[in-house]
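User:
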Amino acid sequence: MDKEENILGTEKISKLIRKFSIPCVISMLVNSLYNIVDQIFIGRGVGMLGNGATNVVFPLSIIALAFSLMLGDGASAYLSLKLGEKKKDEAAKGVANGIILATIVSVLLTTFALIFLPQLLNLFGCTDNLRNYATAYGRIIAIGLPFVMVGTSLNSIIRADGSPKYSMISMVSGAVLNIILDPIFIFVFKMGVEGAAIATVLSQFISFAINGMYIKKFKSITINKEALKLKIAVCKKVILLGISSFITQMSFVLLASVANNLLGKYGMESKFGSEIPITVLGIVMKVSQILNSIVLGIAVGSQPIWGYNYGAKKFDRVKQTLKIVLKISVVIMAVAFIIFQTIPDKLILIFGNGDSNYMEFACLTFRIYLLLCICTGVQLPAGIFFQAIGKSSRSAVLSLSRQILFLIPAMFILGKTFGIMGLLYSGAVADGLSFVLATILLIVEIKNLNKWKTREEALIDDTSTDNKLSEHIVITISREYGSGGRYVGRLIADQLGIKLYDKDFIVKLAQKTGLSEEYIENNEQRRNIMDSLNSGYYFGMNNADELFVKESELIKEIANKESCVIIGRCSNFILKDMNNIVRVFIYSDMKDRIKRATDIYGLDKNKAEKEIIRIDKLRANHYKYYTDSDWKDNSNYDICINSDTLGVEKTADLICKIAREKESKVRV
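Assistant: Predicted structure:
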């Protein structure tokens, strides 16, 4: 690990990008192949209506992907969190429950899709001319959903178990088989869209089978009968951990459904009709996704380079990496722009021929809808960059800005004003606005990097060397904001001659995680909604989860080594299995907290109460998310004290007395 960290901080940036990005690019391109191979062979073997049908059914596949990624990524994060707590049995339960949930949900979704397929197709924008093809294709795809969903969930878990090559082999095997089987079923067996669907399902089954064989090969856990019992609390936790992936994918479902319905509506009012726009835009979006996969792969591969050097305060290397990634991404999208503008007719012919209206609309779509595709060369890497350096809010906004904030509203507004052509221009508008937003955020961040200076004042707490305890005792202090809990901890540490651990965790965690001290200080004990909007699909755990895992490891390491006082950080939960721990919760009346916050912390008196409530809520949410229990529940503590009843000095005296009584019990 030290060697790799040294490489991240010293190796030539371009070499690091090649090393980390190439596997990511390959993985994402393989994922994209599933979306486009069927279209190529169906277009040539069935025609335009066949391709239009696959575009109408496509949202069903994305819904399945959303659930499978939610459960797979959730189980993966649960695995990592519990392994960090050294609880292999709990980790196994999370993985097993995730797999079982994926199986149950896949069967339910298949049943629902088969029963309500006509209604779903209407919701996804199906027209009368596409209905027969879409129904035939959709039924077979629905039957295969259990294989793709369980297989995809397993793929995420396998990566988290430390076998990314195995997961890639299963993905590549399915993709290659799909390429082989599609022409056989479509051209040799003359099975049309049904043949393409069968080829896809068989390919997904192979990936599922390869991943299924891994269950007995897990490196870090063992799946036994006990782990296979469904636990509501575990299932809930898995779902919460994976909800970000679900939200991200469902945004694509919303976009596809809105686009298909509007294309059908305004296409009917034009000479192109409803089917041509639905077919063509679906193809164009999937072609652009191939280019996006390359750009995303490069950016995702660069994430550890950004993260480590940002944490190490090597901001020149951060900026250099960003510059190279943006330059490569913009060049790729510039080449794509030239191709889209000059030979769109050649591109569409890859997916089969059509009449003059089909060819005309295809050329218009490539040229207009992707007019500003070069802008995605900035917007996509920017989202990954902010995720890498721990700016979750900015990352979440950029990740969802194009589809949700810009594209869908633009489609409604421009479609109503300019009809079918307005829908095409909405793509360029969304790309342009996303580019402006990303550029502004990047400029602000680069300016911050230029101004940021290493702190002169260390965040290490005073070290006590005069330990007055004869036994190993650890005191954890959870506290309401403004209750004086940290000062009580300081008094306890001084009185017992032991170390107080609070802000020095920030420095130690920065060294462990590669995240910046600035980010850790602002986010380590808080969790907001933006953390849930950062997809785990590309990154595994998000930074907040990684932070908790590393912090838990550090807390256990310190608690096992020496007597100490630990402030906050769910330490009472993390160390709950130790018999030499005193768990304390300190609270206070609101008026006393406001006085302390204004007099000592310098808060504005008029805003103090609101700020106190806000910070307490963040701490409570953080505690609930990682412990599944309430922060203020007195059963989580050995003693709960109102610091203003006795005063902070006598409160500290009381806790010291309790610690010495605990010491006598430990001695016995």
